[in-house]
Amino acid sequence: MNNYKNILLAIEFSEHDEAITKKAKDLAEQLKAQLHIIHVLDNIPMPDTPYGTVISLDESTHDALLEAEKSKLRHIGNHLGIAPSQCWMVWGNPQEEIIQLAVKLQIDLIVVGSHSRHGLAVLMGSTAKDILYHAQCDVLAIHLKST
Ligand code: AMP
Description:
Blueprint: E1 6-10, H1 17-31, E2 34-41, E3 54-56, H2 64-80, E4 87-91, H3 94-104, E5 109-115, H4 121-124, H5 127-134, E6 138-144
Helix pairs in contact: 3-5
Bound molecules: adenosine monophosphate.
């Protein structure tokens, strides 16, 4: 396990974030790896500006909705001691964007949360499962307890 040098933690902004952020931080510290975090914006429209579809937190923006999302990510990044340049917000489909950013940053381990699913929900799939199937690097799925 000690060959992981670049870890990408996917954060969805939910009550489960704390459980996975703590494990990812502990792991990165043990392995002396770089930790990046990503949140994919799949619920706010992309502003008509030149930001592009990927922005890191050290870029300034002027959109209120985007600023609110950036502030949540900044809070998590500060809590984890991660530099703004390693905190990423991307517009699009979470599984696709997480996998693409992992390739771009030469990530060797993606950390995601994984909810237990029962009944019909099993058929709907999950972000964690899609990333596990399609990522080009290893994936650590942290089991999230239902609340
Ligand atoms: P799921 O099992 O589909 O509910 O996926 C949960 C996990 O997928 C979360 O704990 C995150 O690691 C990741 N995830 C889901 N949505 C997003 C998002 N919009 N941005 C970043 N990561 C996400």
